[in-house]
What does this fold into?
Amino acid sequence: MAIGILAGKQNRDGGWPYVRGSSWTEPTAYAVLALLAAGETEPAKRGLRWIVARERRDGGWPPQAGVEQSTWVTALVALLPQEQLGARAHARAIRWLLETTGRESTLTYRLREWLLGNPRPPEEKFAGWPWIPDTAAWVGPTSVAILALDKEYRRRPSAAIRERIDSGRRFLLARMCREGGWNHGSVRALGYESGPYPETTGMALAALRGVRSPGTERSLAVARRFLGECRSADALNWLRLGLLAHGQLPAGYCHPVGIENRTLPDASLGLLAAEAEKGRDFFLD
Amino acid sequence: MRRTLTRREWLTASAGTAVLTGCGDKRPIVPSMVSIVRAPAYDQRIYETVRRMVEEHGLEARGRHVVLKPNLVEFEPESSINTHPLLVHAALEAFRGMGAASVRIAEGPGHRRNTLDLADAAGYFKTVPGFEDVFVDLNLDDVTRVRPDRQLSRLSALYLPNTVLGADLLVSMPKMKTHHWAGATLAMKNLFGVVPGGIYGWPKNALHWAGIHESIADLHAAFPRQFAIVDGIVGMEGNGPIQGTPKPAGVLVAGRDRAAVDATCCRIMRIEPFKIEYLRLTSGGGSHITERNIHQIGESLSAVATPFAVIPELRWIRMENS
It folds into this structure.
């Protein structure tokens, strides 16, 4: 999708829908990033105004206007350039991320489990991020939160941010499927192993930039296999970004023809992945 | 102009239903009608079968807005994981034929975010002409905050998709499957798919923390105007709902009372319905789902029952002698 078409899908209120209808935070954040990358500042500014107006009192962002809950989409807001979003709003988004963990990592939950004599499963030893507070941490929101904090750490290093990035990456490594790669975050249930998905494999690899281990090598091999088989724009975007983060996108890779963008975030991420292939990575700059 | 019932009207209607079915008093329960029809394969005969089933239950669809809710889980067209698209298309044609004002297909998968890609891989684009025009991704639909009128879970309020809240009739179209946590996943559990991932994430983990069985019961209460058609032509046994193995049962099961439909499906699967917690919770101690309180038409249970294998941890839910 050309950047002009993306701009044309902007709602009157300045935000973007997933497909059509009301504005949501996720498609708006990705659209703003894509428009900024393309130098389309006017629609991006209107999108930023929509986002700034949706900030909640706790410093987080709701998924949609009118929803009374800050969620994982706060990490997408934190990925926006600090100078464009505004220093105070950006700092509050980062703080919200630092203060948010999966429920299984909270002191109350751990104390309760200890009192009940329940052993702590290995995959619960490291704090990740939930989709929505008071629930468990999962691969998707943990990956995006790491990406946002890593970007912030490159701009303004701090021990608190480093600690959460490291913990989040350990969380991802602990949730890796046996064959490599990731699904939504449930590696096994009742002793049965679960397999990886393309999209979450790409997301987790993007968040594990610079991490070398036998597990990440296995996952890179899984990602390359998915890249050749997959027919989903969303999954292909994340696979490209994940492989690029490790310098492993096959040389001369061509996006397959006939793959439809199903949603506007698919289109925005596709534009951002193309920019990243040219060396302008929105997760870093 | 499109006419939808207000929440207050729904509450009144569901309270009326509760009174009529005897909840909370000593009057005899009015048996719920459940039909079992043999359907040996996913072929063209299914269109006539579904049309007859829907008519048999006397559903009033003329001028109504109908939403069909299949169970879409994974990118595996050859497995028995998803509701078969031919069955969903047959229902779409049946309700259109009955003069429905609109018939939409709507689903919000629990693990995979790329719903349309999933529907494509599951064969829906190929089978349902103009699929994209009639489909709504419930994970990304606009939402309204709703307080369950009968709250059993720890969810004090829930954001639900407007497409489903505005439907005159919600048709739950699950696959007949075992489920490693809930025991069986049928018409009632299928409603987890109406909870929007765009708000709650993938998976919809808030429902697990609020209590799986209790959340199923709450969602059941939130949508009183439902019908169910269960795809048991080829179901799933063993480690369902994802990693199980195909189980041909050769039946479709339908009815307005989802608890009665699910209890009947359990009996076909040789699973004891009283051991499925959400069914007990929903049926007020269970009398509602006893065999004698279900008016069954079509095939007899004994003629179609076929034991579904369950994982070792769930052997206790199997019916005796199965």
Summary: The mean pLDDT of chain B is 90. Chain B touches chain A through 32 residues (CB under 8 Å).
